[in-house]
From TrEMBL:
One of its GO terms (cellular component) is cytoplasm. The keyword Nucleotide-binding applies. The gene is birA. This is Bifunctional ligase/repressor BirA. Residues 79-262 form the BPL/LPL catalytic domain. It comes from Convivina intestini.
Amino acid sequence: MVESTKNLVLAEFLQHPQEWLSGDLLANQLGISRESVWKAIRSLKASGHQIESKKKSGYCYQGSLKLDPQVVANYQQIKPAVKVLCFDEVASTQINAKDYISKNTIDAPVAITAEGQFGGYGRQGRHFVSPSGRGIYVSLILPVKDSKLEPGLLTTSAAIAAIRALSSFFPNKDFQVKWVNDLLLNNHKIGGIITEATMDLESQHYSAVIIGLGLNLLPVDFPAEIRAKAGSVMDESDPAVDRNVILAKILDELVLMSTNYQNGDYLDEYREKLILTNQEVTVQVGSEFINGRVTGIDDQGSLLLINEQGQAETIYSGEVTKIKLLSNLNL
């Protein structure tokens, strides 16, 4: 069967969500035979698409168990839609994104996503557990048009963009952040943000930035060593949500964020979501460990604290390794 026939049938389903479409209607609408419709539906089901069939009613599209570029594009609100490349399993979407940049000119956003990762990583190269089909693991490549980056603002703003997307599906969940890049729910880490930039060697200017998001969406049996600190967005009581729809919303929010984050538009929301305010913490900066009480976030996304000597400090880059009253989140 020609792949385009499969895509045409899927497009018809996406235009009529939760509607029953007969084989005859699909064949007439698309100008193909009933047999071609049947073969396309069989192929779509084999690819993870949930299509219910009923005698005298036809077919009803229920969503997909796997990530699909066509489905993600259909649900994106920002146009033109972000180009999405989906893989079954990779070492890391960040690695794939860097490889893509090395072989292509980046003049528009591109997203690399995978069902699972066996080498997913976050800050400090720390491993991120990424079981297949249970989360959203995506690296969004964005062109850098003016060669100017604000790393602190970019990472903090990306965290809020992700939370805004999640909150549109789960409005009753209280998502929070731990500086600089951890997403939390019920005092458990559900995801993380990593931002990396690539440089053009000839011009010595930034050419692209990669925003990586690892998100535990569905319940996971986490390894014993992280079970106390790791969590998932959804639990057994939550209704099913197509991961394609959530990914589309996340991409919309991240692309929108990339156009205005340098104005500091996301900082107030980040401060509201920050779990560290007035907490006693230990921050690792390089090989140094600084103990103090967090007082807030400055206008560049840096961490503000009062150290043990009573002096105010601004931490531009580092990692909170210990939180006195939230020991399960300690690294």
